[in-house]
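Listing S7. Sequence submitted for prediction.
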Amino acid sequence: MSDSQPSSTPANPATADDPTIGRLVADASRDLSALVRSEIQLAKTELKVSVTSGGLGTVFLLVAAFLGHLLIILLSITVAFFLTMTGMHPAWAFLIVSGLYLLTIVLLCLAAYLKFRKIKAPEQTIATAKAIPQAFKSN
């Protein structure tokens, strides 16, 4: 018997194209993995640029500090020679400049000592940190 009637079709034609839950989960997992990999690559690229800039900035500061150190030495010699222009013996002129540096060092060390004496442990933070585990314990 040959009928010219069409064969049976699915009741809902959209279900053939609808993805399954498993396929949706697999696609979401794949997309999430790709997103995480892309974010990690972006972070690596940004950090590389930042580290390079930070390294160059540090080098520039070190060179500037070295040149500043040389400048202080030259200015010290200049001050000592200006003192000799007043008729002072060069040994006394250089001793006066050295004495000024010694006085500056002593004053800076004293200031640092007074600041260090003000350092205390963060007592309130320690107390609250010790209270946190007790808050999670059941009574």
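Caption to Listing S7: primary sequence and predicted structure tokens for the chain studied. The helical segments are 21-84, 90-117, 123-136. Residues 21-121 form one domain.
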